[in-house]
């Protein structure tokens, strides 16, 4: 499992300000894009494993629904924890919960075009 640090300095949101949810969502997605599947050289977001990101601005928290490529994935315990850590690394998020779901079942069509291109599926 790899979490890549781009080395970029993020803009710090003062705790007294409520971040814009679209901007916050984008930063959460960017953080999750640093978490890669251990067997497929594509990040979890572009693989289509992240189904939903809900943000509660006032609580500075996020609820993330995700799946895995297979219920038998050997990283079933690790990947949700890495996604949670990625979300918590975002300025403006103090709490993150990750729910692992199996419906809808993941398939290759859920991958981004970039992921499909990278894997030679397009």
Give an overview of the whole structure.
This protein has helices at residues 21-32, 44-47, 78-88, 113-118, and strands at 2-3, 35-36, 50-56, 61-66, 95-100. It is an alpha+beta fold and 122 residues long. The protein has one domain (19-106): 2-Layer Sandwich (GMP Synthetase, Chain A, domain 3), CATH 3.30.300. The strands form 2 sheets. The protein has a 3-stranded mixed sheet with strand order 3-4-5. It has a two-stranded antiparallel sheet with strand order 1-2. The model is unreliable at 1-19 (pLDDT under 50).
Cα-to-Cα separation, first versus last residue: 26 Å
Q: Tell me, what's the shape?
A: globular
Structural class: alpha+beta
What composes the largest sheet? 3 strands, mixed
pLDDT below 50 for ≥5 consecutive residues: which ranges? 1-19
Q: Whole-number radius of gyration?
A: 15 Å
| Topology pattern, helix = H, strand = E | EHEHEEHEH
Helix content: 25-40%
Overall mean pLDDT: 85
Strand order of the main beta sheet, please?
3-4-5
Which fold name is given in CATH as the topology?
A: GMP Synthetase, Chain A, domain 3
Class, according to the CATH hierarchy? Alpha Beta
The number of helical segments is: 4
User: Using DSSP, what is the number of strands?
Assistant: 5
Total domain modules: 1
Q: CATH superfamily, please?
A: Fe-S cluster assembly (FSCA)
The CATH architecture can be given as: 2-Layer Sandwich
């Amino acid at each position: 499992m790899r979490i890549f640090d781009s080395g970029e300095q993020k803009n710090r949101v003062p705790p007294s300000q409520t971040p814009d949810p679209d901007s916050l969502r984008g930063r959460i997605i960017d953080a999750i894009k640093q978490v890669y599947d251990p067997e497929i050289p594509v990040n979890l977001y572009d693989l289509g494993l992240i189904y939903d990101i809900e943000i509660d601005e006032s609580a500075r928290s996020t609820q993330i629904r995700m799946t895995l490529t297979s219920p038998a994935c050997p990283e079933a315990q690790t990947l949700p924890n890495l996604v949670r850590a990625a979300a918590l690394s975002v300025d403006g998020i103090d709490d993150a919960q990750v729910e692992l779901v199996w419906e809808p079942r993941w398939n290759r069509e859920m991958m981004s075009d970039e992921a499909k291109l990278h894997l030679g599926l397009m």
